[in-house]
Specification:
Blueprint: E1 18-21, H1 25-32, E2 36-44, E3 47-54, E4 57-62, H2 68-80, E5 85-94, E6 104-113, H3 116-120, E7 127-128, H4 131-144, E8 148-156, H5 164-173, E9 178-180, H6 183-193, E10 196-205, H7 211-219, H8 224-244
Helix pairs in contact: 2-6, 4-8
Bound molecules: 1-O-phosphono-alpha-D-ribofuranose and uracil.
1-O-phosphono-alpha-D-ribofuranose binds next to strand 5.
Amino acid sequence: MENFEPHIKCSRELDVRYAVIPGDPMRVDRIAEHLDNPQLVAFNREYKSIIGYYKGIKVLAISSGIGGPSTAIAIEELKNIGIESAIRIGSCGALLKDIKLGDLIISQAAVRDDGTSKTYIKEIYPAVADIDLLNASIECAKTLKYNYHVGIVRSHDSFYIDDEEKISRFWGSKNILGSDMETSSLYVIGRLRGIKTLSILNVVVENEENTKEGIGSYVNGLDAAVEGEKREIILALETIYKYHNK
Ligand SMILES: O=P(O)(O)O[C@H]1O[C@H](CO)[C@@H](O)[C@H]1O
Ligand SMILES: O=c1cc[nH]c(=O)[nH]1
């Protein structure tokens, strides 16, 4: 009998090593457009999954939902079904002014300003990308001629707190490139469980732009952030292809 994981509702029978992980379940459908023979696997809670092929390589696309807790559950259950490498394709706010809408941030490491990863291990344990996936993605981004930045991001838990602007300015002043809500959990828990991880982020809010308005225009499909999303999908899939064939 197939042993389905309780939240993601996927099993080892999928026989897949690579996962692409957006936060938003709707982004899974947009990943499907880049795969051959995409098939819906499951849609339970925030976890929507499809399986398909990219240039002959089997890939699972599965949403993580928002934040560390749901991401942690996804990583744990993906490990159980045999995933070896996972690339997040997320959206983020830029913390520096030369990083523009639709630019990609290839996250080398993350500031652990989330709660979830701290429940696993103390903050002196670093949140860093897998070096092979990181290098492959940089090479692919160069070949594709995308606008990209490589550096450290900050993952946080609270979107609408009163002093978010002040906090963002502080981290920007420390040369942190952008902020999201999942990269640090992905990197720490992935590392602890032996899954190679990388997080590629699409800038949907520029530095000092109003966060709510920026995200609103992204979800309404109005601007360069939509092109950025397409690019991060292609970059993640090309990275898997390059890494697989190294
Ligand atoms: O677009 P996703 O991948 O969900 O990423 C970002 O968007 C959500 C907030 O709008 C958070 O999950 C944040 O990390
Ligand atoms: O500003 C932003 C935009 C997206 N996601 C975040 O976490 N912050």
